[in-house]
Design goal:
It is elongated, with a radius of gyration of 31 Å. The chain starts with a helix and ends in a 9-residue tail after the last helix. It is an all-alpha fold and about 260 residues long. The chain folds into three domains: about 80 residues, no CATH class; about 90 residues, no CATH class; about 80 residues.
């Protein structure tokens, strides 16, 4: 290969060098596309082929050509102008993804009613779509708002209440469906900050439960302390903290399957 490059240097101008030829192609690509950003590998390769036409190293073909292109690509790194993202297109793509999640939420809530926990299906599905663990609940809440509800758990609550209202003589199945025994009750309509705080802690504990085992009641208390310490009712201590913890446990018991709730 070294002998081949020496031969090329003899054929071209005496002052020319391999590095200069590489840089020449790099400069031409940048010049030709100064105001025309290249998008994708194929466009970049087309630009290199055009700029390298007539260059001996490129015309040699084979391994010589491949090495030459590789060196040109290295020379272009960090210098190519990036295309400006279209804000409208980006927003439309995000909305399309959110709509897909919203549709999935509707489907799963309906298919798991009344005995299942939709999150058992939605959580792994969200991860398979490439969403980060810590983003799952936030996206589910946004999706439910797109469906016309205040939050994901409010959608579960309202769906249960609607089924109960539509079936006053009983829904059938192994579980009684009435407004009084709605396991997804959030109290969000009351607008109390403490209810939203309880919801925050409960959601975090249920997220934790998806990929961890809750060993015993002491473990639950540790989780409540871990996730609830930042909320005002917990910080106040005394009766405020006791009521806060009691409400969290009440909601957790309603939402967890009975066999998941630790006996000791």
């Amino acid at each position: 290969m070294a002998d081949m490059r020496k031969l090329i240097n003899i054929v071209e101008a005496p002052t020319s060098s391999y590095e200069h030829r590489v840089q020449g192609v790099v400069d031409r690509v940048l010049q030709y596309h100064a105001n025309d950003p290249l998008v994708g590998k194929e466009q970049i390769m087309d630009a290199i082929r055009s700029a390298a036409a007539g260059t001996t190293d490129y015309m040699m073909g084979g391994r010589t050509q491949k090495e030459f292109i590789s060196d040109v690509l290295n020379g272009l790194k960090g210098q190519l102008k990036k295309p400006k993202a279209d804000p409208a297109l980006k927003k439309a793509e995000a909305q399309k993804k959110l709509q897909r999640i919203a549709d999935k939420v509707n489907d799963v809530i309906g298919s798991t009613f009344p005995d299942g926990d939709p999150l058992d299906i939605l959580y792994p599905w969200m991860l398979k779509q490439g969403f980060a663990d810590e983003k799952v609940m936030d996206l589910l809440n946004k999706a439910s708002r797109l469906n016309g509800y205040k939050s994901y758990y409010k959608q579960l609550e309202d769906f249960w209440d609607q089924i109960a209202a539509d079936n006053p003589d009983g829904f059938g199945g192994s579980r009684e469906v009435t407004k009084a025994n709605n396991p997804w009750r959030t109290n969000e309509d009351a607008g109390a900050a403490s209810s939203l705080d309880v919801e925050g802690v409960v959601s975090n504990i249920l997220d934790y439960k998806l990929h961890n085992t809750i060993k015993d009641k002491a473990h639950i208390m540790q989780l409540i302390k871990h996730f609830g310490a930042r909320f005002t009712p917990y910080k106040k201590g005394g009766m405020d903290r006791k009521k806060f913890i009691a409400e969290i446990i009440k909601v957790l018991k309603a939402r967890m399957n009975s066999y998941d709730w630790p006996e000791t």
